[in-house]
Amino acid sequence: MQITKILKNKTYLLTLLIILIIYLGVFYFTYYRQFQREEYFMNQGLVQLNTQITNIINSYDIISEIVYRNDINRSEIKSTVYKALYNEEKRGFYRAELIGRVEELYNELDEYNIRQLHFHFRDGSSFLRMHRPYKYGDNLFEVRETIRTANLEKRKVIGFEEGRIFNGYRYVYPLDILFHIVRVKY
């Protein structure tokens, strides 16, 4: 009798153990599959988001290139900046002249969330911020790597930078021959 009772208890315990193992296996498999599905969809979302961000950055790059080639890198703009560089007493006059030349363009760009159009001299000092035309003369080499690199290497530079007011992608171009800098920020 005792042997049967022990065997029944062992059979009962073994059955209970098998059921528990099956339950844990099903639970683990179900949880793991759900986790895999969630991870897959999150990764797909990240891939899609990365593609969208890349497309936006490339679109702004195209826009900035068109603006630079067609509106900024013109002889009258370069001449005004050049004259301002070498005539400190008349910089206010040349700043006003440059505002007159680019104000309509800046207003059009603002409609497309292009928030800044900024002219610098080759030493990194600000000549004209269209978003804050009353602030100028400060040197930005220490706080804007894009401006420093564009000036020193005389090439277009694109980069994301933190700003004092806004963070954003900056597209910085040297003006041909004179190597004065124009920054378009999105």
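(the above was protein one; protein two follows)
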Amino acid sequence: MTDIKTLCGHVALIGLPNAGKSTLLNTILGTKVSIVSRKPQTTRFQVIGIHIEENSQIIFLDTPGLFQAKSPFEKSILQTAWHAVHNCSFVALLVDVQEGFSSRMKQLISTLKERKVEIIVVLNKIDLIAKPKLLNIAKEFHETNIVKDIFMVSALNNDGVSDFVTYIRVRLPESPWIYEHDKITNLPQRLIASEITREKLFRTLNKELPYELMVDTARWEETLNKNIKIYQTIYVRRDSQKAIILGKNGQAIKKVGKMAREELTEMFQKKIHLFLHVKTDKIWHEKPHIFNSGHGFYSNE
């Protein structure tokens, strides 16, 4: 009997903020591993999604959006994205076709040229523009001379996504698999829980919500009857931001907690008890680790 050869490789998903990288990754995997929001820089760290098909394992890296970093916090986010670019077999540049070949995109292409990075262009949200304009955008990218191939997809509608995945799969190098067969992401459950709550904050409060917040899962307790108690701290930098998250009579945080608890219950298939606490810390973004005493948590139940 001949052993089946296994294929394995890494794909960096890069792009400007809001290009749809997280949506594409979730669609490829058929489950949520990366949170989605209309707010820029939603993804703050490298999220790995593992797609297995037949004898192949594709390891997708959903990276933070590439932007002009100013603060040390933003520079740390950006460093994560560029690290992925230089350590993957494939680099897929996701493009929101509504922005197209804009001045920001030209600047990014120039940087990729300087770094000698060849890319696969994935034109996303193709259902939102006319075909002649779409073809013109594809032509502009092709003329940059760093593009291996171009795909046109709607990540949200799962249109054209399988063609992109197949393209990668048949070009993977022969290699042992890096992750086990049943693993789909590198994120621990505590971090997934934090990200789910952060997503609900973005979606519920939208433009009112300050970008500079963090959700930390301070405690995770599994009870004897297999329920899970999750205690989370929402860090903001100003008291006025804390008031926004709490809302009048605590209504805003109640809504966020309810939405997060429902999704976590479905995700982990266990009863979730979620306790949220909002804390002001002017320099939370400068601390590598944030600890909480575990007191003052708000239950959404």
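Reviewer note on protein two: The helical segments are 21-29, 72-85, 103-114, 131-142, 161-169, 189-205, 239-246, 251-268.
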